[in-house]
Model the fold of this input.
Amino acid sequence: MRNLKLFRTLEFRDIQALGKPQCFSLRTEQKTVLIGSDHGLIEVDPVTREVKNEISLVAEGFLPEDGSGCIVGIQDLLDQESVCVATASGDVILCSLSTCHLECVGSVASGISVMSWSPDQELVLLATGQQTLIMMTKDFEPIMEQQIHQDDFGESKFITVGWGRKETQFHGSEGRQAAFQVQTYESALPWDDHRPQVTWRGDGQFFAVSVVCPETGARKVRVWNREFALQSTSEPVAGLGPALAWKPSGSLIASTQEKPNQQDIVFFEKNGLLHGHFTLPFLKDEVKVNGLLWNADSTVLAVWLEDLQREENCTLKTYVQLWTVGNYHWYLKQSLPFSTCGKSKLVSLMWDLVTPSRLHVLCQGWHYLCYDWRWTTDRSSGESSSDLANVAVIDGNRVLVTVFRQSVVPPPMCTYRLLLPHPANQVMFSAHPQKSNDLAVLDASNQISVYKCGDSPSVDPTVKLGAVGGNGFKVSLRTPHLEKRYKIQFENGEGQEVNPLKLSLLTWIQEDVFLAVSHSHSSAQSVIHHLTVAPSETDDEHGQLNISSSVIVDGVIISLCCNSKTKSVALQLAGGQILKYFWESPSLAVEPWKNPSGFPVRFPYACTQTELAMIGGEECVLGLSDRCRFFINDTEVASNITSFAVYGEFLLLTTHSHTCQCFCLRDASLNSKCSCKEIPFYNIFPMSSNRRSSKNRRKAERKKHSLKEGSPLEDLALLEALSEVVQSTEKLKDEVYHILKVLFLFEFDEQGRELQKAFEDTLQLMERSLPEIWTLTHQQNSATPVLGPSSTVNSIMASYQHQKTSVPVLDAELFIPPKINKKTQWKLSLLE
Done:
């Protein structure tokens, strides 16, 4: 139940360079962008907006001077410290960016349509103008050349002995002639460019090629192995599109199919058979799919679409959609609309090879965009008793809301759905504690739809019940209603048109105030915008949000969090610095966030999740990085945390060992909080119950005595618990000894001394307490003789009955005090 949330945008535009951009590539080591144009190559640093290198291919004769040349591929070669460029005219060029030296390592007379390198950069594949495939080594030594069209199915051809073949089956009213009907093939789509498409599997062992068959005119997908042996050919698929992308994990090959009334993304297995699909939110002949791209960890599929010309003088758009899958359901998480004319026309896009959730986009006019997303769970704050524990999930132009206080249903089912006119990009709940069930949705048209809980005079058609509704079912749930849709009025419409996701980190901080962040395209600065509701005299459902004020911050803001009680706002910069934003102040000041010692707070690593919490009366910033490192202010307190949440005065943490730990922040001091967090980090106290199965754990719990107050076996239960504590502590000596050695080895002497002193004090306390506890218990249970001059029949029977109830024979061992072995060497003498 997660969404993709944009937290950073990096862009540069209007680079002074010759020609028009055609394609681009990334240099991961140098963190620069290589852009190929009809004039040559240009290397740009996207952070400093500085042109590092510029190489002309026209001057060397590899591209014509009239601008008709085309670069079909660029690949940065790490081990050779150079760049490989392929031109449509057939030249393969090796460029050294350090010396600007150009070398033509090969030429194909018929031209090159595709150049594709294997993921390990050991092989390069060229698709030529004569419909052949050429495979070469990284040193450009030819291995083999084969025809791109093959009559054979491949080595993985299916074997059948004839059982159940079509000729022997019953064909109903069609008769036996149906078994011998010739299969008809549909030709390629009208907008298909008939160019081959190549994609590699993530491990580089196989590659797939999509081509138009000259005999049937339809597209086919063929799979080849690394040794250039044909493995399989796809089954006939009507309306198969040219886009092709092999999932890096290796399970599926994505392509497109146009059906009579819809457009689908279809998936092939390696054997060529179809295996699943999902439908795009467009009609037939409405859009064409230019490309499909999987991100590095196979969690997000990017779909590049473009409107088809249906009417004259109509405004055409290009879309980039990000799809994810969960519970066999495909969700549309982000939608980026671009124009098809001017500077915002899309030229190329690609995922980052190192950061899985980073998308690079190249537009006309030398305009480059880089988007960083992160996974987040959009939920209500839960600060008040009226909060319904809402969780919102984006699914295209629908927002699926699950109310966990009243219904727990698995996604994609939900409690109710919000229907929007455009795909949603971000969901936020109100920060006001008493209005935490209200939510707002930012869609792809930069319009905010506000839904509020409360009495509505009529049924809202944009709110539909989900898994809780049905015929004759009385729903006790009070669903929200649409209050108004607000259009954001930008000061510069052109800037928003070039960058469709101009605003990020949208936060509903007050009834009629939103905070949003935008990033400068010319410098490393961010702008905090105050979006306020414009007054309106009509009750129209459409309103307007004006940017009432803006504050410029030096640095790139990557997260924004607020405390609904203290109304504090914390900003995190890309370098880890934490700033406090006084949004209610007339001057709108921004200053460094300081710890109790008065020093500015700075996270050692950028955190993907930040929260504010009160610890010992001090407001602190909590952060969790993508490497599971947990920080309180600028102190790292754990490195095995997978998630955290702040609920009032409690902090909840989940760890790698699948445990949930809860800490009370009310009586904790900041210093003690930071030191005691070393316990879950070093895992000193393992939870033995997690190592048992649930069945055995329930058996063990039934055997234990009850510690409930007033229970007849309360004393025995306390003895048993104390005995288990002593035995567990005794077993920890070896573990503590090894931890002390590791701390000393890595020069954490001070922490080691604190741990050794604390464990020694614990053992001494146990040694002093054991004689007092078990001696007293023995005296109480070795009661005075039941028989005697003052005894009566009733007292004798009552005494025997009490002994029978409180001291079972099986629990006699509880009165034997546990032993502490003083000979066990657990101390580290170097720390004394």
Observations:
- The chain has seven helices and 52 strands.
- The CA atoms of residues 170 and 340 lie 53 Å apart.
- Residues 672-692, 700-705, 777-785, 804-810 have pLDDT under 50 and may be disordered.
